[in-house]
Amino acid sequence: MQTTLRLGSLxxxxxxxxxxxxxxxxPAPAASAASAVRTEKNMSxxxxxxxxxxxxxxxxxxxxxxxxxxxxxxxxxxxxxxxxNAGPHTLASxxxxxxxxxxxxxxxxxMMEGSQKNPGGANLVYLPGVLLLGGGVPVKSGNEVIGAVxxxxxxxxxxxxxxxxxxxxxxxxxx
Length: 175
Description:
The protein is α+β, with helices and mostly antiparallel strands and 175 residues long. It folds into two domains: 2-36; 45-174, Haem-degrading domain (Beta-Lactamase), CATH 3.30.450.150. The protein contains six helices and four strands.
């Protein structure tokens, strides 16, 4: 009788242990539908084209022949414009500035200045695609970065940035 009692107790303990292990290994409850799918703002092609055109026009008004590239929040090119006399290098520089700004959600002029003051930040130049020159500016809708504009070709990154900011100011009401 005592052996039967011990075996019965042992069986209950084993069953309880198996149940607790199974419960501990059970997958976590699935995320709710509301948190599993995100909603993000993105700019339209029309807005991207308008920003690029405004940036080129702002620089042209100051006598600078530039290219302007607008990327979406993922850094994918949405629009490019190049002034008639802009050098061929301006296309690559404007695209890299826009990508860097969208990726970091920060103006590239500020990033460049920060990397000059911080030895660790200087290593950013070794990341593929990053260009730490002024002229890349995030495009925001409220507080959310929805893309960036990069300008290349003015005689200084600070001037490229002025043109980018002027373009964003022109379309502020659409953001």
